[in-house]
Amino acid sequence: MTEQVSTQIDQEISQGGWGQLKKERLDPIKRYSLRNPSLIVGLALLLGMLFFVGIGHVIYDTEQFRPLSAPTRLGPTLSHEMRDGTTAAFPFGTDTQGRDLLAVAILGTPLTLRIGLIAGAVAITLGTIAAFVAAYYRGFIDGAIRSVVDVGLAMPALLILILVRINIGRELSTDELGIAIGLTSWVFPARTIRSQVLVMREQAYVELSRLSGTSGMGIIFKEMLPNLIPYITASLVGSVAGAILASIGLEAIGLGNLSDPTLGMTIYWNIQFSSITLGMWWWWLPPLAAIVIVFVSLFLISSGLDEWSNPRLRKRV
Amino acid sequence: MTEQTEAINSVPKTKGSRSVVKILLSILNHFVIRRFLFFIFVVWLASTVIFIIPRLSGQDPVKEKLLLEAQRGGAMQTGLDEMAKTYQKRFGLDQPLWVQYRNFIGDLVKLNLGVSIAFFPRTVNDIVFESLMWTLGLMGTVTILAFILGTLAGAFLGWPRRPGWLQYVFMPLLTLSAIPQYLLGMILIFIFAFKLGWLPLFGGYSPASLPSLTFEFVVDVLRHAILPAFAIVFSSIGFWAIGMRGMMINTQGEDYMIQADAKGLKGARIFVRYAVRNALLPQVTGLALVLGTIITGQVLVERVFSYPGVGDILFQAIRLSDFFVIRGIVIVIVLGIALATFLLDVLYPLLDPRIRVRNS
Known about the structure:
The complex is a heterodimer.
Chain A: H1 2-14, H2 18-35, H3 37-59, E1 77-81, E2 87-90, H4 101-137, H5 139-154, H6 157-168, H7 174-184, H8 187-200, H9 204-211, H10 216-252, H11 263-272, H12 281-309
Chain B: H1 2-9, H2 17-56, H3 61-72, H4 80-91, H5 97-109, H6 124-157, H7 167-178, H8 181-195, H9 215-252, H10 255-262, H11 267-305, H12 310-319, H13 323-351, H14 353-359
Helix pairs in contact in B: 2-5, 2-13, 6-9, 6-11, 6-12, 6-13, 7-9, 8-9, 8-11, 9-11, 10-11, 11-12, 11-13, 12-13, 13-14
């Protein structure tokens, strides 16, 4: 099979068909992006934002995210005369505690995404394992996992996190926060993936594999998991969005790490110092815009992935 | 599929009330009782988790809080010994674990959530239930409003014979649904309260007015509720619209739709009685699933608006590390969600004739 393809490519190259090759390779992508615009737009939004953040990391002094490293309550300005006579630029302004808000935005955005990614990875890993154990082995184990999941769905993750955080009694680092969120949010993916596995285990190819003597583990890893990857990817994106939502919520209610400049902590300081009534729009607008872009792009990506993993959704009006 | 249409056709409005009573009784026999037992199980397991979490960390939030207050000195210091004693006695913290557990569950059964640390000697029940009125009042109205508006929007969006301009409403709705409610709340505060000054900036009622049942006070409360309500409605309409649109699209290819069309029924009738009627049911199940998200979302909205509901109390309690109030709020919310899910499940057969038929 691969030989065939490579000889075909060789032929094209020997015919001087670089342009043709490019056309044949890129055309499907172009066509797919026309059919599934939300995936492309979502990815473009997210990558675009990361691109600007990356540039910021390289060319901007991000050390000024700490309080008291800049004058306080400064609107966005490109030439502010400092006390020592030099001029400094604060394109995003500063807050009431003297943080440079551009530095906060550059550091905070990837930090929040990082919490989401860690939590999403933990949640999906645990959820997938629980789903496979429950759906493949059935019986008592399935019943136990299902009741844990049902109870977990009745207990909002944010509340459990608040209880855990209060009892730990110290501030969590951003990575610990991510892991904690992941540990409390695996039940929803577990539930949805379990129902997918249940459908899948009745499929003919799984049946065939079982009849031909493949072991349980073999069926799970060789037959089921590869087929579930699109679905798992889609739920990963959903989990990341949920985890970011939870982390911002936890931080906004005052349980975040006070020394980290994440988007949620910036929202917390905004509420704490009522920046809206102070008229300091430059303080709340950037984190808000960043959060909106993150959620909208994750939402678009996940509906795009849905279309990819579940072709039945292609039935459009 | 034919089974389904038959089931729907077999429950016309003409049936006598006696058969309805009979159906209800038979449902009560198996379904409701089973569901109620599961409700009890969920509440028990959840409260056990709530009991275990503090014991896992190996720290005693009560003692820590008391120590903290002692270090700070100030007005609390005089009551410290008395408080410590009260807590030791009240919760039997020196007793073996299973006795503590038994007491905890026993108190829960009696709906006794303990005493606040920060607002000693006020009870947690007192504090939580006072704020719960505000939360339930706002959330009840807003959730029902969002459900109706969102479902309607989704029904039209998933209808092939809708007016063409409607499809341009869909994208903004989707975008709104991706924005957390409290952030939408901040934007609304900025525009309508700060810039335009039409509505109050924060709170549940004006600080100058005293809660009473006068016309002015009611208007005042409503004016304060508008912005938080819109923040929640706007961001959840999209969720309902997406779900309903998907279900409407799924009904398109169904046999009963083709049959309705073939019978020459009017479009409006097919829309209401055939498409919407069938697409609506999963929406109700969806309501049960997202209750938790709705309530935690609202907790944060209340924080942003300093609305005197559970969210604001929760924030105060976290700031004062008032463990028993925090635990009380968690228990009340979990209980509320479990109860609401139970009620939705029990009422579901009344909406879905298929399940009603299967149960009887």
